[in-house]
Structure to design on (930 residues):
């Protein structure tokens, strides 16, 4: 369903013919997400012309479905008629508006903010202050437009009041019961309200054991709590337990997708991108990928050093070189597996000390089994490779059986080392308060390559002595 | 917040003392998610004893928050008093119940199903039939308990009817308007209903352009549509546009987490696990990891063959060996990056032909820049390593400048080759209708290792000839 290629020509024609009714109708009929998909291909002037033709509600909806980079591009374009831009800005959900404004830190942005109402300027400043504390916290994804009621109301009165709140709240399906100074007392879902006796007081039917998060909590924590408790929206409180906002299910879905992308990029040794891969400039990509590639290249340079020292042994037994890529790959592969499994586990769950110990023991047992299997397979591969070779020993030449055993045993040990390293390093990073996902697969491989060479050297010198 | 370690001793004591009131209260007071966290550590007999002490609602809630493996363990335990197990099974959401029953394919499972009401047995069979079609489709995560109304009602009549439906529907916040034979006509949100004039007919206020998915659509597609349109629930229709179920926001959050785990595991060359890493048996893990390790080892065995042929050149210039791990790592790292970026992009977006071409061109330009930088750096590293060596040439010895150039140029070419391979292969897999995530980082590395050696060989023979 590519609305873009289907409808874009029509839109362009309507713009050229200044067909205001046609453009108005277009924004009315289509789902705002589809509308946005088409309009994003326009230039800023055409875009704002279409916006000025549509009514306020459709205009706002369509704009809210553009991605952030596009929103910023359009909003930062100077327009003669500032009113349309301001009306869109006014209509946005406060959390989205702040995300946008933090990308518009120029004169035009300040000019737009100054046109907002006093209350809205206040909300902007408040949300911006939460965001500045730390990036990616609950404050940066919450909205301040939640439905709330005082506790002394009856169910019937509550419904009457909610009818009035309904049009400008992000959701009315969770109603928060607040006492003085906005302190959170309880929560009622709209469904409970509907099922309740109209005469009953809210205080008698509200849930008192409400799950909350703090403004400063990491947004990944918010996501995992919403997932755990199956919530529609998560209340966000400040240090005095005052309700300052809510994070809704649709924002959490976006967070989960963004975090999954970020984690995948980290695993592949790419600094997480802010925008989509295709929307990121080549120079930014050179930086985001280059940083890690340089680090990894420098790490790999140490293997040159190891191999230089290894030279005497190697030149006596050139066949040791044949198996070099195989030996280090088997360590790197097992290390990648362990790191991936442990990093993902740490992302989803908090682990207690005893679980961590159990994990490392399991990892060790597992690596012995995997190492045993792969070591044996390597031994057989080596036997196969030398199958046609006559067993004639020249001076200093090792017997085929011994040669195959050297590589087999090395793979066995390297797999164990790789697996344990891969599992241990993310745990250590976590313990040190760093993101375990910084341990990317290539970084694990680089470390395991280095140690793998040392193991290979040790086994070879010991067995061939 | 480890409810488990805090409360478990109390629960065990209450069970021993047969303190039925205490246990009843425990299930009442705590959030069912926390309740489940504690109860999962009990054995099946104790668990069902606690369940028999609590009322039907808390019992059902707590059970629904156990993870699937635990639910299956408890439910498959033979209990004298079948009634408690049946009551829990009856109370479950139909989609969760089917997931559970598909794990209970034994006599005890069949016995439990036979105790359900005729209607519920029918729902089970219906949902099971969708699931059997294909795993991980919309049918496997949808629930059949949605709120629906005929279109001739007024807004006021609708609210009265919804009050009656409210207690057993998964959500009443989206109301589906159906005509004959359950064909989907439109959608009204509860909020719209509340804001509407009580006398207005549903047909005049409902949204007619409703986004739907098919029963057979992949659950990842459902997730991305819900994310795109910011929906609370996605209607699922069959091939005749009859509404057969809905997928709710909380199920989608679970899907997103599971899919992110699956993709992460695939990237790390682990066959996706069904349960959590810690809950999976060692033997299953040996299989899920071993399959890929064996495949990768066999792929690596081909490098042995390449190096054997490379031997003459190598033994003349032993220093070529020193840089072997560095050369193949630089290809593998760039390949991992490109594969990760492209795979994640393909997971999130459908790509058109012209975008694919643009992507490959960008990737190629990017790889020239990255390759140039890394090649230069490698050249400098080589110069540094040979810094102390006097430039005295013995017969057949290549000058230092030439040696450094060989490794630098190889890295330049290998990075380009790695980057293009890493980006191209997932695209090819996608084109062939396979999951692009099958191209794990280690598999890309294995391929790039092999081709990297060939490049190294070609460059070395050409320049040192």
């Amino acid at each position: 369903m590519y609305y873009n290629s289907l409808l874009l020509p029509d839109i362009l024609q309507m713009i050229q013919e200044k067909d205001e009714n046609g453009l108005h109708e277009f924004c009315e009929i289509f789902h705002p997400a589809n509308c946005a998909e088409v309009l994003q291909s326009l230039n800023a002037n055409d875009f704002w012309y279409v916006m000025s033709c549509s009514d306020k509600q459709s205009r706002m909806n369509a704009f809210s479905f553009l991605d952030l980079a596009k929103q910023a591009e359009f909003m930062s374009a100077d327009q003669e008629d500032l009113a349309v831009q301001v009306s869109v800005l006014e209509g946005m959900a406060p959390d989205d508006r702040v995300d946008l404004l933090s990308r518009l830190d120029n004169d035009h942005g300040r000019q737009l903010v100054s046109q907002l109402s006093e209350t809205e300027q206040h909300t902007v400043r408040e949300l911006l202050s939460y965001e500045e504390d730390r990036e990616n916290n609950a404050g940066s994804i919450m909205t301040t437009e939640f439905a709330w009621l005082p506790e002394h109301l009856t169910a019937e009165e509550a419904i009457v009041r909610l009818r009035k709140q309904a049009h400008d709240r992000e959701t009315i399906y969770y109603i928060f019961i607040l006492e003085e100074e906005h302190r959170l007392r309880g929560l009622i879902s709209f469904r409970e309200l509907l099922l309740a006796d109209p005469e009953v007081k809210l205080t008698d039917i509200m849930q008192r054991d409400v799950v909350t998060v703090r403004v400063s909590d990491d947004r990944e924590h918010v996501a995992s709590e919403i997932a755990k408790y199956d919530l529609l929206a998560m209340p966000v409180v400040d240090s005095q337990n005052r309700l300052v906002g809510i994070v809704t299910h649709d924002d959490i879905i976006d967070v989960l997708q963004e975090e999954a992308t970020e984690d995948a990029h980290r695993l592949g040794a790419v600094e997480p991108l802010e925008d989509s891969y295709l929307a990121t400039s080549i120079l930014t990509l050179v930086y985001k990928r280059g940083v890690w590639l340089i680090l990894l290249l420098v790490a790999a340079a140490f293997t040159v050093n190891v191999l230089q020292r290894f030279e005497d042994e190697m030149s006596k037994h050139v066949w040791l070189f044949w198996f070099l890529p195989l030996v280090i790959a088997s360590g790197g592969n097992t290390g990648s597996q362990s790191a991936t499994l442990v990093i993902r586990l740490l992302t989803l769950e908090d682990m207690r000390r005893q679980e961590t110990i159990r994990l490392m023991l399991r990892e060790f047992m597992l690596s012995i089994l995997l190492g045993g299997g792969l070591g044996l397979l390597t031994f057989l591969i080596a036997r196969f490779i030398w199958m046609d070779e006559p067993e004639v020993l020249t001076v200093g030449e090792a017997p085929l059986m011994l040669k195959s055993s050297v590589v087999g045993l090395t793979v066995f040990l390297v797999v164990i080392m790789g697996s344990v390293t891969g599992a241990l390093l993310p745990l250590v990073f976590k313990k040190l308060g760093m993101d375990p996902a910084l341990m990317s697969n290539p970084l694990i491989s680089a470390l395991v390559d280095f140690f793998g060479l040392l193991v290979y050297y040790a086994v070879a010198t010991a067995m061939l002595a």
